[in-house]
Amino acid sequence: MALRVAVGGFGAIGKVLAEALDDGIDGLSLAAVSARDTKRAEAAIGGFATAVPVMPLDRLWECADIVVECAPAKQLRTIAEPTLINGRTLVTLSCGALLDNFDLTDLAREHGGRILVPTGALIGLDAVQAAALGGGIRSVQMITRKPPGGLEGAPYLVEHRIEVGGLNTAKLVFSGNARDAARGFPANVNVAAALALAGIGPERTTIEIWADPAVSRNIHRIEVEADAARFSMQIENVPSLENPRTGRLTALSVIALLRKLSSPLAIGT
Hints:
The protein is α/β, with parallel strands linked by helices. It has two domains: 3-121 and 249-262, Rossmann fold, CATH 3.40.50.720; 125-246, Dihydrodipicolinate Reductase, domain 2 (2-Layer Sandwich), CATH 3.30.360.10. It has helices at 12-23, 38-45, 76-85, 95-99, 103-111, 125-132, 155-159, 178-184, 190-198, 248-262; strands at residues 3-8, 28-34, 66-69, 89-92, 114-116, 137-146, 171-177, 205-211, 218-226, 230-237. Strands 2-1-3-4-5 form a five-stranded parallel sheet, sandwiched between helices. It has a five-stranded mixed sheet with strand order 7-8-6-9-10.
């Protein structure tokens, strides 16, 4: 029997995910979507092979085994609480917000729910998780470079009156830990939160964020020092056409995670 998947959010990521599920993924079926613009979503769904309802975020669990959260970070609890209380699986992309709402893991444990965080725009999270076993990681650093337009409007930049428009050279706009990075750039560096959760936590994971007019992709470089290994990784993600704050790879990562849940063969930890 196919696992029913509801998609919470119908933007750059949610729409790609819903279309992929409608096209067909073995062992999975699209059950419902949620969107801020209900009429627009209903019009798009009308062109799908199988029509599904457009529902409020807090009711998606009613018709799904898995609820994928790809809404604004401030909506995390709205979708997560009823999903987890009713023993469903939550796939969340707002893992930056998860750092400040970590009691949701207790809610999942109490009611038989699950929270899954996809790899998203990063590589090597399996290696970081493995190295963290036994407390063997000494340091984790991530340096992110983004086109300035992908950072505009971030709360940290607004609060500190940091301008990124019209730059001619790269500008360091943030240096600190992963928790503060996730708070200050909620639409930009969920990758920092995922890295922190996989490794040594948000306080010990250090982050630099650069606004760089010379790059056209979202670039993340990670350096890890551990007892088991020393390794570095770099990925250059193509920004989404609909939302330059997120990479195209993010939606594909969610699809890969969902495939793994229903596949007889799963690669990676």
